[in-house]
Write a structure and sequence with these properties.
The chain is α+β, with helices and mostly antiparallel strands and about 100 residues long. It has one domain (about 1-100). The chain contains 2 helices and 4 strands. Strands 1-2-4-3 form a 4-stranded antiparallel beta sheet, with helices on one face. The chain starts with a helix and ends with a strand.
Length: about 100
């Protein structure tokens, strides 16, 4: 029984450590800010979440929009690894797109 309990705890820790995808971080009614994760060496434009972020903007605006500015947004730090002694702090970088609906 102890083994199943330990496996359950490890699974919850693993799932909670997964990076979030694109999300609407701020909603202004007629626009807002969408953020998404990216890796530094890959760059924000090539992130697999950029397409998801632009889709969120398009859905929010029912079609047309204007991007006002883009830049690095506040990221987060998380602990990766499940075994004691093999954990490390991972810095997740996020990119922000501020937009206004037309």
């Amino acid at each position: 029984m102890k083994t199943w309990s330990s496996l359950g705890i490890l699974l919850m820790i693993s799932l909670s450590g997964c990076a979030e995808g694109a999300k609407l971080a701020q909603d202004y009614g007629d626009g807002g800010v969408v953020t998404y994760p990216y890796k530094g060496e890959q760059g924000s434009m090539l992130s697999s979440f950029r397409k998801e972020a632009l889709s969120l903007i398009k859905d929010k605006c029912s079609g047309s929009y204007t991007i006002l500015r883009e830049g690095e947004a506040k990221g987060r730090a998380r602990v990766a690894g499940t075994a004691p002694g093999s954990q490390e702090v991972v810095q997740e970088r996020r990119w922000g797109i501020e937009f206004r609906c037309k």
